[in-house]
Amino acid sequence: MPDVRERRLEALGNLLTREQLDGLLVSGPANIRYLCGFSGSSGLLFVSHSERVLITDYRYIAQSAEEVGSIARVVIEEQSLWSGLWQQLAAMPGVKVCGFEAAYLVHRDFQRLLEQGSRWQWRPAMGLVEVWREKKDATEVAAIRDAVACAEAALEMTVGRIKAGMSEREIAGVLESSLRHKGSEDYAFASIVASGPNSAKPHARPTSRVLGKGELLLLDFGMRIGGYVSDITRTFIAGKPDAKQREVYEVVRVANERASASVRAGMLGRDADRLARGYIEERGFGEWFGHSLGHGIGLEVHEAPRLARTAETALAEGAVVTVEPGIYLPEWGGVRIEDDVHLGAAGVEVLTRFPRELLAVGKT
Amino acid sequence: MPDVRERRLEALGNLLTREQLDGLLVSGPANIRYLCGFSGSSGLLFVSHSERVLITDYRYIAQSAEEVGSIARVVIEEQSLWSGLWQQLAAMPGVKVCGFEAAYLVHRDFQRLLEQGSRWQWRPAMGLVEVWREKKDATEVAAIRDAVACAEAALEMTVGRIKAGMSEREIAGVLESSLRHKGSEDYAFASIVASGPNSAKPHARPTSRVLGKGELLLLDFGMRIGGYVSDITRTFIAGKPDAKQREVYEVVRVANERASASVRAGMLGRDADRLARGYIEERGFGEWFGHSLGHGIGLEVHEAPRLARTAETALAEGAVVTVEPGIYLPEWGGVRIEDDVHLGAAGVEVLTRFPRELLAVGKT
Prior knowledge:
Two copies of one chain form a homodimer.
Chain A: H1 4-18, E1 23-26, H2 29-36, E2 43-48, E3 52-56, H3 61-68, E4 73-76, H4 81-90, E5 97-101, H5 107-114, E6 121-125, H6 128-134, H7 138-159, H8 168-181, E7 192-195, E8 216-225, E9 228-237, H9 243-262, H10 269-282, E10 294-296, E11 303-307, E12 320-323, E13 326-329, E14 333-336, E15 339-344, E16 347-350
Parallel strand pairs in A: 1-5, 3-4, 5-6
Antiparallel strand pairs in A: 1-2, 2-3, 7-8, 8-9, 10-11, 12-15, 13-14, 15-16
Helix pairs in contact in A: 7-8, 9-10
């Protein structure tokens, strides 16, 4: 089987021709990983019609050799990645007009292109690689499916170990060690563990607050397997729910169910968002669902497409997206239920299987 | 006691006058946090002589109100932070010439300044706030001291629970849940847990590899308390060290000791680096210490100053820096010992107290 990176780099060659570029400077970490396999935090990848060179530093000698193999030439640069880049480019006589990634290059580095890199012409490029990354192939979907399954196993372990009286941070520790136990390579994003009124903050970070009886507990966490992430949220109740908790939960659950059942490749991002938002509005909670319905996941936890009121583009066939409606009532609390959904050619598959009913935690 | 942020924002006002700017667009997350307290992942802070406005989104309504208080006006923007910014600026008639942070603004957003923001003049600014952040005040040093002490307590918990036969990822899980137990607000960076030959990779990520008897185990991890981080590395031995492990360890230990004893505020970064590197070279391992000696820590895990061969600037009085010599022998393994050191006016204080001798783990 040919290396999938070989196919991607060939496609990039064709794209360079179409865009009339002699080369592309890839600086977005997930784009670098997608094209050549390197997952370190410090690297520049330059791809021309005849050359592929990854420039990184000493800390990644062994890792870059293992990950990149023969797909690109690896240069270990002692001083700075940029001086390494000028040297490499100077040895490529046919290279004159180059693209750079406008969404990743900070202005200071753009100035380097104009100053030390003034021998070349630089053209901003947007989303060239990201567009491909949106459409997952079978191997990528399998990796995400794996990340989802392992995250669910970790969640099950965690739920059995939560007790009322634990702090949000202690619960985060249990959740995260369970994610590691099930094989997570890192944390795709800062875990959200929010109890009681804290759950009204959609992006709460775990605090020293102790989970009390009768309170909501929202867990939103990522797992990474083979480079690909899952992103799942479940909201639990510490004991028995009261009528309002039950009502709010049920509205979110039905909104999640409706959106997952009807979201399709080809749909506009704003229409997908509408699937859940319409129902939540009907039920009178529209004002309290302030974020968007979801986003793509893959090598990054937030990537194309967007499922949002302002998203005018169609969801690509092959994308894996989150469906995560929520209702947040200030000072009272919040509920969110988030699944990962593959928009395949043969139909939609909800990858997340963890129950969506309101489950109790912290029984003693 | 006046709010420290008030002092910082006043200083920023003076700086604007000196730089002949009417305002500064702050987009670096740690700079935003330093100036107004907001710690969310999505925000733009604009400061002029008469206005301070933080623009963020729905997810941070409650958090921004709590964290920012009355130090700045908070605007929750429904569409995008950028359209929020144009609206705010349009209501500030005296504001014409504005700085932006060249080290944080990506080229795509720079284009927004030139296009939608063309009513204003934009000037790149570098390191204006970072220079202040390098000099920690007493409260900041206290927060880092706390992060160090809690990290050490977590390390002690972890060491007692490591067994030969555990995988690097399981050990990472134990370490990270201990960090949470001791109060860590998040992970300042991806934990490094590297066993045997993997420890030769300075930036290894935890894998499924199992710790074997007689192997080195390198742990490099961060903790965050009150926004400030610690950054500590210790290398252990699973059982008894052989002669070579003992020799390499001892060279690194002495290099760490010498550098910690002699590093001073006012010293050039490259001279500080030399303190450890000179000794490692003398002992014949210079080739295998390929990274730099250290870096500043604070709200970020990598901030000014740099202690590196190429660092031509002096270490500021008040900085807290890491001292982290290492020796990495490909396929054999590596040793690093990393401490956090405060370069105070009254002298140097090594904040880390965890033993620096080669300790055994995994006794059964």
